[in-house]
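Re: Re: ligand-bound prediction request (bumping)

Still looking for help on this. To restate: I need the protein modeled with adenosine-5'-triphosphate bound, output as structure tokens. Inputs repeated here so nobody has to scroll up.
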Amino acid sequence: MSDSVLEFRGVSFGYRRTTVLEGFDLTVGGGLTFLVGENGAGKTTTFRLALGALRPRRGSIVRHGSGAPAGRLRQKSDLIGYLPQSFTAPPHMSLHRYLEYIGWLRLMSKHDLVSAVPRALARVGLGDRAADRVATLSGGMFRRLGVAQAILHEPSLVLLDEPTVGLDPQGRVDLRRLMRDLAEDTAVLCSTHLLEDAGATNGTLVALKDGRVVFQGHATEFQTLAATGKPGSTDEGLTPLEAAFLQLMGKS
Ligand SMILES: Nc1ncnc2c1ncn2[C@@H]1O[C@H](COP(=O)(O)OP(=O)(O)OP(=O)(O)O)[C@@H](O)[C@H]1O
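Reply:
Sorry for the wait, this slipped through. Here it is.
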């Protein structure tokens, strides 16, 4: 997939007196895009704006497909899936029951859910855990359940807010594999502090600083760009991508 699916045009947004985004332009294409930036840079705010949960002060946010503004649904291709940073699910429910409940909240028909629930569970590698309670899942499995609820209604764009945070190396590898797999037929926009997520999946990297996009391209270009300035320091145990990131943020 390569067509643009979401576009922020000259968006400005702030909470009360704080300005978070200023003249913010972002084009999200198909495939996998990673949004990186320091704590408080505005990644979650960008997601909330894309979902239509917040309204920009200035500028516009457009879903391609029907061209509907954020938060307005004109056709099925405008559907968005969302895994929030603070994902929770009732521990006593079975995975199957929980996803049926999510489908009910999204106004999906019982008929559609018969196939949608097993399909979503299989897609995230939890097909054999359908009858188990949420409480029995490991941290990595729980995160994958979060992805399952985000894709249950087969959205054309999935927003994942820091899905790999706190996972062990195997959990991160599983989740990156899952994101790569999803990105074959769905646009995926993922925020992360782990720059290696972008490096390992060959995704597009978008770096946010002071409310604007300061870089958009492949992880390898990001590293090369930073390396053409003064060399990033890797002597603090940083990976080359992390050193490049700090340099771009003016911290090295
Ligand atoms: N509901 C809110 N009310 C007021 N200020 C907020 C609110 N939510 C976020 N902010 C502020 O907006 C800025 C951007 O926050 P946001 O959560 O979008 O950043 P982020 O890049 O997702 O951060 P992190 O990497 O720490 O999750 C921060 O300064 C934050 O304190």
